[in-house]
Design brief:
Structural class: mainly beta
Order of helices and strands: EHEEEEE
Number of helices: 1
Helix content: under 10%
Number of strands: 6
Largest sheet: 2 strands, antiparallel
Length: 107
């Protein structure tokens, strides 16, 4: 399957303008308890039902792929994404407070 973030195609007039900090795709509905457990910290990659995990770390330039950190056991799920189109790495680096375990970058 193909998933697109930002726009459906390069000619679309409806494109996303903003920052994506992290992308997680699950194969199941998360319970309220699971959402509270996972939403505010980095994942190990082996969480039950995790199919894709792109941390999208800041200030990585000239990268052609978003590498999938999700795995089953010690085997990567391999759902790497191709970075294309009008994607530009951010020069914005979160502050020390935003990088803390409970930091927020969406305010």
């Amino acid at each position: 399957r193909r998933i697109s973030f930002g726009s459906m195609d390069k000619d679309s007039t409806y494109t996303f303008k903003g920052f994506l900090d992290e992308i997680r795709v699950w194969s199941k509905d998360l319970s309220d308890k699971e959402i509270l457990k996972y939403y505010d910290h980095p994942l190990a990659g082996s969480e039950n039902g995790l199919q894709l995990y792109w941390p999208l770390d800041e200030n990585i330039t000239n990268q052609l792929y978003a590498y999938d950190y999700s795995k089953v056991g010690n085997v990567s799920n391999g759902n790497h994404g191709k970075i294309q189109g009008n994607t530009v790495p951010s020069k914005v680096t979160p502050t020390k407070e935003q990088l803390s375990l409970y930091g927020l970058t969406d305010e």
